[in-house]
Amino acid sequence: MGVLAVVVNLDNLLASLVYSLVGLAVFVAGLFVFRLIMPFDVHKEIEVDQNTALGIVMGSFIIGLAIIVAAAISG
Predict the structure, then answer these.
(1) Torsion of CA 12, 18, 23, 25, to 10 degrees
(2) First to last CA, the chain
(3) Residue 6: is its pLDDT beyond 70?
(4) Three-class HEC string of the chain
(5) Model-level pTM?
(6) Which of 1, 15, 43, 75 has its CA 20 to 30 A from that of 69?
């Protein structure tokens, strides 16, 4: 029974790793699309011009995307 419990835990670990990689890929793709659809340079607006409103919008986008990915993973 002890060996079986380790195998089950390794399966869960592998599933967690796969879901993490898929979630990160979704985040990267989402941020890429976000930067593509914006009519200005996001990096310049946030870091050089210190546009706080754009930072809040990007943070909201990231939180929303995280909620969607978490809901997809949990079923």
Answers:
(1) 170
(2) 29
(3) no
(4) CHHHHHHHHHHHHHHHHHHHHHHHHHHHHHHHHHHHHCCCCHHHHHHHCCCHHHHHHHHHHHHHHHHHHHHHHHC
(5) 0.68
(6) 43
